[in-house]
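Entry type: protein chain
Record version: 2
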Amino acid sequence: MVEGKVVVVTGAGGGIGRDIALAMAAHGAKVVVNDIGAALDGAGGSAGPAQQVVDEIRAAGGQAVPNTDSVADAASAARIVQCALDSFGRIDAAVNNAGILRDRFFHKMSVDEWDSVLKVHLYGAYHVSRAAAVHFKEQNAGALVHMTSTSGLIGNFGQANYSAAKLGIVALSKSIALDMQKFNVRSNCIAPFAWSRMIGAIPTDTDEQRARVDKIKQMTPAKVAPLAVYLASEAAGVVNGQIFSVRNNEISLISQPRPVRSIHRSEGWTPQSIAEHAMPAMRASFFPLDRSADVFSWDPV
């Protein structure tokens, strides 16, 4: 599917990124395996995780190089793209997967906890995509695949920073798709359902919680990889500006914001008439705010 293409995968030292990198290589791509080797909260760093994935790819007969630059800084992210150029002469696709967590209830969240998560997820997706965009434009072809989350699409407890970043990535992807479609550049999002260290801290104190975690563990990162490979391939040439989810063996197309109900009043509105007429009529169409803490109980339509 991606024979001869050069693909950058960020956050590829483990979890979903690792499986995407392995799948890209298995389907013929030359892969830049990017990972700073940090802890889940972004602290520390090691070249080990990226090198281990590169070793796996090479042992299977594929081509890959490691990279440990951070996506959170523009100059550093540009070096990731340059690594592809230096190693393989071009770049054809980038998968923006790198991420960290700094979970905290909103009223307790610090500025640093907010900034650090947005810098890796949202700024990181922007920096890598922006560095790749110049080359995509010149060659009149390219593909971007961004990892979003149901935490952004429908919300989650204690993740205002992560949720904001992940929904921001959706808007970024759509804007890239609109801006660059004339250069045959595509940009799409995946909301993955998969067990990884990003959700490995889910509590298992009760039988119900343990059953929930056992269910989630069936959703392996490898299940997400085929869609990422497809979206990076020429076979996905008509797919642009879309949001997908992958849950085990299920692929869903996610709806995007559209009006669900409108009310017109010829004389205009006052706060009182809104309260008396508009809101009572619209209330039946309100989206519920009783979201379960179990993000994976959500049933895609």
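Comment: The beta strands are 6-9, 30-34, 63-67, 93-96, 142-147, 185-193, 243-247, 250-253.
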